[in-house]
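[Meeting: bench + compute handoff]

Bench side (C.D.) handed over the final construct sequence. Compute side (W.E.) agreed to return the predicted structure before the next meeting so the bench team could plan truncations. Sequence as handed over:
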Amino acid sequence: MSNTSTTSAGRASQQTELLRRREKLLGKNTPLFYDQPLHLVRGQGVHLYDVNGHEYLDVYNNVANVGHCHPRVVAALSGQASTLNIHTRYLHEAILDYAENLTSTFADPLSTVMFTCTGSEANDLALRVARHATGAMGIICTRETYHGNTSAVDELATLFRAGEAVGAHVKSVPFPDGYRPEGGLQDQELCDAYLRSIDQAIAEFQQEGIGFAGVLICPIFANEAVPNVPAGYLNGVAERVQAHNGLLIFDEVQSGFGRTGQLWGYEYVGVQPDIVTLGKPMGNGHPIAAVVASSELVNAFRSDVMYFNTFGGNPVSCAVAQAVLDVIEDEQLVSNARDVGHYLRSGLQDLQQVHEVMGDVRGPGLFLGVELVSDRQAKQPATQLAAQVINTMKAKRVLISKIGPFDNVLKIRPPIVFSKNNADQLLDTLDEVLTELVKQGGIS
């Protein structure tokens, strides 16, 4: 047997053993990406490296929003960790400095922050604040969403339950989809149809005696595969929420920190919420998240509820998060997301003219979706093809994912330090992979 064969056999054996240990220690069905899971050992910028030294272009991980292991973020973490790390029930300038700098980026009256460790906790806390403020319990979400894994927000995890919310206090509505519009409607009629589902959910909450507390959505509908939203929809949602004394909560865990080509997703869509939740990219991989709201909402909540979070907003987390904000500003990453995102989207649209299986290209900034179809006119989802694409792309050292109601939308969401050269590599590889797979046939 050759040395190459021996080495390959050894690597396969190592992976098998890792998978065995993982199943034993973490439990069966713990999620993994790709048919052949990756064993990663290092990251730098927009690249990840596996145990064999192979370099991968990361076009998926928004957690490392300013790039994997950014030296300024690493320095901030190690510097503060070597000095002091404690919970927030002591005075510390770093916590206040970061809170001041963070809230200064929001429009009034979003001026006060409550720190948590994860986006799940932030959304859970936002629901508590909304229910406290309104005295009602009813929350509306969409039928293809996910907002975290605490007991409260798990009730909204319709993405994993065929569109259904769980429990009497949550109702799900269709997400606004311009590609596969409800009833085949268009323009204002389509917008009105989606808004009627909001009206109906509010009315049902009132009839059931539960009351209406608010709506929790991502402003760009990230988990719904960044659909083309009918004009006026989000304004209509905001108007209805206000008219019924509820609160509009925007989950900006994926849309925030420059992702859309604006610092905040609410700026991109032009609708201001009552509460914003933050997570993942806030600490570039370090666990810090937050709820941002008006001082009126936060103070009223705190006057009645003894809320604290031992690790939320600790000095190390705030030092890291401040470094992330500084990097975004100093490296002009918001405009980079906008400019490179436009370049990438234009390149994908050019590929769409070549590949019939690319039914739709959409999304803001550096969060793009490519809907794959087996029949462009009928818009028949090509679910199997999407799975083949992401696995073949991985084999060619480019990492993307898939999402959507039919699991057929390629999810493109790289760190926002992504360059035009990186975009060219993605485009060339996608072109090559689609050509290969279509030639092989069996598109479905």
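W.E. noted at the follow-up: The longest strand covers residues 368-375. C.D. will use this when planning the next construct.
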